[in-house]
Predict the structure.
Amino acid sequence: MTALVPIVSARAWRQYQPFEGGSYICRGQTEHGFHAVIVELVAADGTVGWGEAAPLGAFYAEAFPEEMAEGTARLLPEVIGLSADAPARLSDRLNEAMLGQPGVKSALDMAAWDLAARRAGLPLADLLGGVAQRSTALYRSISQATPDEMAESARHYLDEGYRRLQVKVGQDPLEDIERLRAVRSAVPADVVLYADANGGWLVDDALRFLRGTGDVDFWLEQPCMTLAENRRLARSCPHPFILDEGITGLTSLLEAHADGLISGVTLKIARLGGVGPTRVLRDVATALGLKVTIEDTGGSTIDTAATAHLMASVPARHVAHTVDFMNWVTVQNATGMPPCSNGLLHLPEGPGLGITVDPEQFGAPFATAG
Ligand SMILES: [Mg+2]
């Protein structure tokens, strides 16, 4: 047995990441940027691991920026002295020290996986089981606006190379029908469309939307918030059905599958608690025959690198698509990520996340340990 190499220091910073387009509207709520938490873990041999997590305001997930920072500061001392080679054991420690709060734990968990992979000299995707593909199709979300404005955004994103679009619905169902139809008419038939309500509809709203869009080719994502509502709706839905907000862990994934509800799932790293928990749901979802999207609730380059490694490890026939959050915001926090091209997110080279982070860019940390 090799000697334990401990984690000897940990630091955390906050970084504000404004949206490239100025604002982002979802479920009727407007946000102007991500408030990210960035974590650095240092092992006794000098190896460094990085993690990042960001909520979308306070409305999107059961997390908000101040909580993420306060929770990280509280958990940081817990990881000092733990093995730099055992990210799942670090996750156990976080779960002993704090009940729930997966968003708070995500950046720490991600940094622990990056650290272990760098120590092993392996790209993170290899530590997660191996690379199935080096590039993953991207989608771009079309923020809620008038149907004409959303059609214009769709054309803009096609010009940028995206071939999969997510139309934000979940408001007035009759307006939402017009939103989806306007975007569908504006793009070629081979462009994949998702109508994502982010759980914004009640069942009756969603039924009206489905009645008005029966002839349109699209995938339906998280129409209503609760499993009971989505169960009522799925019986009337002729489209492939995806859950995102409803997948908060293994239990909700198994329940949705047992109900025969879903064709696929969107796994968000921070909503599940980091790379480790996401790895578990990746394996269960693929074993159940589902399409898998892995992305996050926010972040920039560090988070996008983790997304690229997780998606690279999804078996090819189960890949849906993913997100390049580093291109949604005006702030980068690492170098080494290959630029996206042809609507694809590419895996970086090298051990761990395959990126380089200069902590000088962040200023003073809000928390330190060790
Ligand atoms: Mg979604």
